[in-house]
Each structure stands twice: as C-alpha cells, then as structure tokens.
Amino acid sequence: MSGPAVWEESRSGTTGELILTVDIPSGDTPSGFDELVPLLDTPHTVWRAVERAEAPLEGGSLATYVEPWADAVRAGGHRVRAVLGHRVGSILAGAIAEALSGPGQPPPSVLLFDPELVDTDTVLSAFRRLLADAPHPLTAEEVDRLALDSDSAAEQCPDDPAALAVRLRSDFIRATSRSGERARARTGSVDRLSVLALAETYDVLPVWARCTALSSSRPDRGLSRSRAALLLPEADLVAREVSFGEWHAEVLSSPVVARTVSELLTASRPR
C-alpha cells in the first residue's frame, strides 16, 4: 500500500488497516516516529504525515489545514486503526482523527506521546531553530537582532502564543525580503510558525479527553508542561495516562514503550 503525497509509508502491513503517525511541526526530535515504528509488533501499515509547506493564516483554521491528510485517507477507502501524535503534533493528530469521523462514524483511537499545547516557549524555540538551522541569507548580526527582538515580542504578548507566532513569522519574512535575491531565498520552514498559530487556537482538549497519553518522566515535557501552562496541575486532560520511567528523549526509542503501544494498537478498533 503506497501512501499519497501528504503521507509517506513508514512500514508495510498485511491487514489493509492503517496506523497514522503525526510528529509535525517537527521539534527537538526530528526523527520522530521513525524511531518507534521499527520497534512495533503490529501487522498494520504505518503512514507518517508529510509536512506541508503552506499554512494560510488569514481566515484559516487547523481543521481546514488538516483536511488534505484526512481526504487522502478517505479517498483510498482505508480503515484507520489509530492515529499517533507526538508533542505539539498531538494537536494535529487529534484534529485529523476528528476529521476522519462523521455522522455514525466515531473517530479512530488516538495515542499521544508527551502531548503538549502551544505555549510561548514552544513558539520561541521554533523561531530560534528557524534562525539557526534554516537556509536563509541573514547575516550573523541580523540573526542576533531578530533573536533579541523575539524576546521583546514574547514579553509583549505573554499569554497569546498564536499572536507571537504570527508576529515572529512576519519579522522573519520582512528581514529576508529586503532584496529580490533575499525574497527568492526565503525558506518554507517559516510556515511552521503558521502551523503553531493555527494549532494554538484549536480547541483540542475535548478531543484529548478521549485519548490515551504515554508520558515520559521529564516534568517539563508532555502533559506536565501542559498542566502547568493551564495552571491546572491536577487535571487529567486525557482519558488515560500511561507513565514511563524513560526520559523525554527516549520515549520514541524505548522497547518498553513500544511494547505497550503494540498492545494498545492490538486492542484498538479500526474506523
């Protein structure tokens, strides 16, 4: 089974059922689900979401943004056993699962790995990765100035990560558009900030309330971080939470976590 352009096949299966994995926008673990999938004991085909370059902000929504992924699954008539999300990608995973549901068609099972909401630090980290890693024409002095300006912008909108993402995106585009040469050199990586803005405004908590979360032991990642951001330290946020002793960076490469995931996938029902 070959995945359409918005999906890539991570693993071929024999059942005709799909497991969808979503780890975008990519963060500090760019390999994402590529680490976990080979460890799974499952006969199902696994598709990984391919990052899309365009995320229109004006009049846009996350529900609209994820439709191409859901459309590709529906067009192929595929049965989805589960959708897996990682960190902020857990918001997109929830939105895709919702898009695959309909009248008389409940959403597929959703497993979330250290799921996180979008906060100010999420946006600043994405912007700094953009400055450090993306192929842009900015000088070192210009990069330093943008980094300082981003700290100032964060202080001006501490409780509005979506507005911060939009502002930093605009600052980056303006800085790289001062000549025709620079305009051509602009990178599509800036659209990750747009995705964060759309994800921050999506009401994902009702979706997560039906999901299972797999949590690492790191207190500043996953649900612990989300609870702190919401000032709700005792909130469940999900239907079930399975905690592991593994550190955050080890969750997707842990055989112990993979074994639990394989058991949960066996128990889930396709939609």
Task: Provide the fold topology.
Layout: E1 7-11, E2 17-22, E3 45-49, H1 62-65, H2 67-75, E4 79-86, H3 89-99, E5 109-113, H4 120-133, H5 140-156, H6 161-175, H7 180-185, H8 191-200, H9 205-208, E6 212-215, H10 222-230, E7 240-243, H11 255-267
Parallel strand pairs: 2-3, 2-4, 4-5, 5-6, 6-7
Antiparallel strand pairs: 1-3
Describe this structure in words.
The chain is α/β, with parallel strands linked by helices and 271 residues long. 41% of the residues lie in helices and 14% in strands. The protein has eleven helices and seven strands. A seven-stranded mixed beta sheet has the order 1-3-2-4-5-6-7, sandwiched between helices. The longest helix has 17 residues. The protein is globular, with a radius of gyration of 19 Å. The protein starts with 6 loop residues before the first strand and ends with a helix. The relative contact order is 0.16. About 2% of the residues have low confidence.
Outline:
With 271 residues, the protein is α/β, with parallel strands linked by helices.
